[in-house]
């Protein structure tokens, strides 16, 4: 990606003679250049312009692709009528010229200029600007990273990710945080060619790269100043970076909770940071593409993207999909957050099969606080707001008589809540803001009831007064107690950090499938720790400190944004242990070894206590210890996705936009692959036509013992009949590939009434269990299972 600043509609600053020649040739050769003069002072907007492929430029005339793209912009820009004083946006027309992620460029254009461009044979389309959003200690032990070789500690077998470079796209980084201390770190590998815009005292062998991408966002967000350095006062980027690859920091805690040594998933991996998002503004599509473009050439091994868009179009329009495919071509795995708009169906984002889509689950750590009622009943919630001495006396307990949500200070004062504990429903404002209002009203403490949709899951935050956050159903018990007595009382008992709680549970906010853009591919792929995650931050938002108190450098946050860097870090460990593995192989290793039961050996549950569906957890909860040695993998190269895209019904132009800079293809001249037959670690069958039977093909690659035999085990309900042929896979060498077919049909011979779930396992002795979830769903009629999913025009 070339980022150049072009005054008015000017060309890049080449030699004068060359520039004159370029202009003369472009004006003569491009029909649009001969149009009648138009008003360049109209409304300019950012557009992503896609160029037809194959469409080569003359390397004798153009220094590079950037100069060619600049000439295309100049061909529709009437420089003679450019009025710089009246149109400040004309200062920079060519924003980005892309090399890897897409065949095209980003530019400032008027609708009239876009219309002129559309008359050229090189033009495919111009997409208007779009904004994406961020999907916003103990986990190394939880995921089996710690421990010696005998105990199976992954850090021991992967050298903590040493030499692996994780690229993070986020909203800024606090480079001076102790999680980014480079002491004891080796220099980055020789392939690293990126840059760090901080000075040498800030950049080190841990944080090896840091850059800002702002050229597109600045036009949309008036008043947003060029950050110069990739710093902001938000928490997100620092938190995700330290989660993926933070160095060890002893004594990490938040308000005295979760005390311990903090460390990222891959504490010896290097971090390359790319700022593409801005607090309360989002992440501009064209800046995201530019950052991925550079990251791939910089030499990253893993890309971690905690951003997405629920309204994204097909794979050819989405920067995560486009960048993810280019990354796959470079051997780079993309770990992408699955979204935070659950638990509704079809809310998952970043659904492309060449990225690993990550949902969120809980950990086994809780910050327990008990509400003791005057009736003698004790009810547990969670808190990060323990005072030094709350006392043992029972206090009057009241419920907000206004809207119930504690949002009106005048109502609270009229209630005379001084010295009392008040219970507040969810809604109206965030609880930390309510706490300030309640404190001003004189209350001694606050009970916050979580939304019903959150079930048993609590996302605690520090508050300015003693606060206990309660699950919805427990909150109803407290309300019932208030109604049962004329003088209700309560007290808080703070119990601190407690481990070995039931986990994981699917996070209520974690977005769910099915996959809207490719129904035959199960998404999310996997879930990871994403609830109440302790990691580095510049400061804790909304935390009131005493005169001599020091701002903590760690905070607890929740979201699929927190889960994705966990998977990125685990991927870095696998990459270190298996440097030749493809992104698909690394992804397969995590998916086929994921846990589908909790720490009580029961099926992972959703927030309502019922077993979580595959649409909530994908293949299950990441198990790093098993993923480092999976036995078998389902491998794919970037080329293997092309027949799949053709099978989805994508037109040649869109396929070629996605696979750029690979050679152009014509779907009509190549075999198509049904979604079900993409060599994916999960299996999805759409039974929508008689006889309601489908055969699915898979190829397994042996990465375990050279000589090994795997026997199949199938676990499905009686409503399904599943046959696997052959029933045994007998390998004689490492990297040997064996094929098998799975035939799925309904036992009744009729269409399934609803979604059916099962699983297939390849078992070799007591060491290897390679599991694939089986998802069977009814079709909508009129289409074969092969064609279900998006079929872009």
Reconstruct the topology from this structure.
Elements: H1 16-29, E1 45-51, H2 65-74, E2 94-97, E3 104-109, H3 111-117, E4 123-128, E5 131-134, H4 139-142, H5 154-158, E6 165-170, E7 207-212, H6 217-220, H7 236-245, E8 249-254, E9 257-262, E10 270-275, E11 277-278, E12 282-284, H8 285-298, E13 302-305, E14 307-308, H9 319-329, E15 333-337, E16 356-361, E17 366-373, E18 378-382, E19 395-399, H10 409-415, E20 421-424, H11 431-440, E21 445-449, E22 467-470, H12 472-484, E23 489-498, E24 526-529, E25 533-536, E26 554-557, H13 560-577, H14 583-592, H15 614-617, H16 624-627, E27 632-633, H17 641-647, H18 652-659, E28 683-687, E29 693-702, E30 708-715, E31 720-725, E32 728-731, E33 737-746, E34 756-764, E35 768-778
Parallel strand pairs: 6-10, 6-13, 7-10, 13-15, 15-16, 16-24, 19-20, 20-21, 21-22, 28-35
Antiparallel strand pairs: 1-3, 1-4, 2-3, 5-12, 5-14, 8-9, 11-12, 17-18, 17-23, 19-23, 25-26, 27-29, 29-33, 30-32, 30-34, 31-33, 34-35
Helix pairs in contact: 7-13, 8-9
């Amino acid at each position: 990606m070339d980022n150049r600043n072009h005054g008015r509609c000017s060309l890049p600053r080449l030699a004068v003679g060359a520039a004159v020649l370029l202009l003369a040739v472009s004006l003569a050769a491009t029909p649009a250049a001969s149009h009648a003069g138009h008003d360049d002072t109209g409304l300019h907007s950012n557009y992503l312009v896609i160029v037809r492929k194959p469409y080569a430029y003359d390397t004798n005339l153009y220094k590079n692709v950037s100069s060619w793209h600049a000439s295309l912009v100049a061909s529709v820009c009437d420089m003679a009528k450019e009025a710089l004083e009246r149109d400040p946006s004309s200062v920079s027309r060519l924003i980005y010229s892309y090399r890897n992620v897409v065949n095209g460029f980003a530019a400032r254009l008027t609708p009239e200029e876009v219309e002129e461009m559309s008359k050229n044979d090189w033009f495919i389309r111009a997409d208007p600007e779009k904004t994406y959003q961020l999907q916003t200690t103990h986990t190394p032990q939880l995921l089996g990273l710690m421990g010696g070789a005998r105990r199976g500690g992954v850090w021991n077998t992967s050298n903590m990710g040493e030499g692996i470079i994780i690229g993070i796209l986020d909203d800024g980084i606090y480079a001076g945080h102790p999680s980014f201390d480079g002491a004891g770190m080796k220099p980055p590998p020789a392939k690293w060619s990126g840059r760090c815009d901080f000075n040498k005292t800030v950049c080190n062998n841990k944080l090896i790269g840091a850059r800002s991408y702002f050229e597109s966002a600045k036009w949309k967000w008036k008043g947003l100043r060029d950050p110069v350095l990739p710093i902001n006062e938000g928490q997100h980027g620092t938190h995700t970076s330290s989660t993926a690859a933070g160095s060890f920091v002893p004594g990490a805690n938040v308000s005295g909770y979760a005390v311990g040594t903090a460390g990222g998933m891959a504490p010896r991996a290097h971090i390359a940071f790319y700022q593409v998002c801005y607090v309360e503004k989002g992440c501009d599509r064209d800046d995201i593409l530019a950052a991925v473009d550079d990251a791939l050439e910089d030499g990253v091994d893993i890309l971690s993207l905690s951003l997405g868009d629920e309204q994204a179009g097909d794979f050819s329009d989405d920067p995560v999909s486009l960048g993810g495919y280019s990354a796959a071509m470079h051997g780079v795995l993309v770990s992408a957050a699955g979204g935070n708009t659950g638990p509704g169906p079809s809310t998952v984002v970043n659904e492309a099969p060449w990225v690993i889509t990550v949902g969120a689950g809980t950990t086994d750590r809780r910050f327990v606080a008990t509400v003791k009622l005057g009736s003698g009943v004790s009810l547990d919630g969670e808190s990060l707001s323990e005072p030094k001495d709350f006392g043992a006396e029972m206090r009057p307990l009241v419920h907000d008589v206004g809207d119930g949500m504690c949002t009106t200070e005048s109502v609270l004062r009229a209630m005379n809540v001084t010295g009392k504990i008040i219970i507040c429903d969810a809604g109206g404002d965030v609880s930390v803001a309510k706490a300030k209002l309640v404190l001003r009203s004189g209350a001694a403490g606050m009970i916050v009831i979580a939304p019903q949709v959150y079930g048993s899951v609590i996302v605690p935050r520090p508050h300015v007064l003693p606060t206990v956050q309660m699950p919805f159903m427990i909150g109803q018990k407290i309300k019932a107690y208030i109604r049962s007595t004329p003088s209700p009382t309560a007290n808080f008992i703070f119990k601190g950090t407690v481990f070995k709680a039931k986990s994981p549970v699917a996070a209520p906010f974690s977005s769910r499938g099915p996959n809207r853009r490719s129904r035959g591919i199960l998404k999310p792929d996997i879930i990871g720790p994403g609830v109440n995650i302790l990691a580095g931050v510049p400061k804790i938002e909304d935390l009131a400190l005493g005169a001599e108190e020091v701002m903590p450098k760690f905070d607890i946050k929740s979201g699929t944004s927190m889960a994705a860097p966990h998977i990125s870090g685990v991927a870095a460990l696998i990459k270190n242990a298996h440097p030749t593995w493809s992104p698909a192989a690394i992804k397969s290793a995590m998916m086929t070894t994921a846990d589908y039961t909790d720490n009580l050996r029961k099926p992972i549950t959703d927030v309502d206590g019922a077993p979580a569906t595959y649409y909530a957890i994908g293949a299950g909860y990441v198990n790093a210890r098993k993923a480092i040695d999976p036995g078998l993998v389902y491998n794919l190269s970037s080329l293997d996705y092309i027949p799949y895209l053709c099978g989805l019904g994508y037109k040649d132009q869109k396929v070629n936009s996605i696979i750029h800079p690979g050679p152009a293809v014509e779907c009509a001249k190549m075999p198509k692959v049904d979604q079900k037959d993409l060599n994916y670690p999960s299996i999805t069958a759409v039974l929508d036509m008689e006889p309601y039977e489908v055969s699915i093909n898979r190829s397994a690659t042996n990465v375990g013992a050279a000589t090994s035999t795997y026997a199949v085990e199938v676990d499905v309900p009686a409503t399904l009949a599943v046959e696997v042929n052959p029933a045994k896979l007998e390998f004689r060498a490492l990297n040997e590939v064996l094929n098998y077919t799975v035939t799925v049909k309904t036992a009744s011979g009729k269409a399934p009434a609803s979604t059916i779930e099962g699983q297939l396992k390849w078992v070799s002795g007591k060491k290897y269990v390679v599991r694939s979830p089986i998802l069977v769903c009814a079709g909508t009629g009129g289409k074969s299972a092969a064609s279900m999913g998006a079929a872009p025009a």
